[in-house]
Amino acid sequence: MQRVRDLGEFGLIRQLAKHIPRAGDDCAVLPGGLLLTCDPVIEGIHFLPNTPARQVGWKAMARNLSDIAAMAGTPRAAVVSVGLRPETSVHWVRQLYAGLHACARQFHCEIVGGDTAHVRHEQFIVVTILGHAAQPILRSGAKPGDHVFVTGKLGGSFASGKHLTFTPRLREARQLAPYAHAMLDISDGLASDLQRLVDASRVGFDIISTKIPISAGVAAALRAARPSSTTRLTAARLHHALTDGEDFELLFTVAPRHAGKLRRKFHEIGRVIRRPVILLDGRPLAAHGYDHFAQRR
Predict the structure, then answer these.
(1) pLDDT digits (tens, 9 = 90+) for 255-275
(2) Can you name the residues that pair with 79 across neighbouring β-strands?
(3) Which of 131, 152, 187, 247 is the most exposed place for a label (fewest CB within 10 A)?
(4) Measuring CA to CA, which residue among 288, 191, 285 is closest to residue 242?
């Protein structure tokens, strides 16, 4: 009998998507430009038991707002469902909601309802957001010759704690809305999310390693590894930037005529090519990143 871990997260999603025709982007796009997204945050996977509850709440809201940003949308309203152990302190729950409300208020998204449930083991928070985009930016719009950009530095998010405090790129998405052909947020690693654009747009990418912006947070991820040479250190830094995930920066493509103006604000990392493959410095790059069913953080 085939198991979920045999398929992996993305293999499973591809199978399920056959029965969900609107699947395939960061949000579902409904008639009238309505956007709908839903993401869970689970204890032991997305946060540790000793993580401050306010940061857990911020992350739970922010990762869903990041999906709205990836579609160049505006959030409207959110509902929140939580699974709690009965022995959880009320103070922890209040702090959780303080984090949820702080993030939602900052981006003008009202929490309008939700639900609570009893769990025996890992606690969870599920946020569902309704938004709107006049012209949603899909993953399927990349064109050969486009320039490829990211909005910020990559790697080391989980090790440095950035994954609990990041700012969803809604403001940047509004700036990109007139220009972006394809866009998504980087949640599972640059290499993995580039493959999602390959699958959706049926194009490829030629990425230049020296142009990938690497976060200072990668240092935290490298402390335990301690590479023994400068060459290994460089390779390790690049590996983290490509595969760590939880960056929640935007990955997008634009026509060559717009690249110059955007290069002043964002990081250009490569070009879109016709052949549906990911190249890194001219060599094929495996599309590996975080997979919920193949590994644990």
Answers:
(1) 999 999 999 999 999 999 999
(2) 113, 128
(3) 152
(4) 191
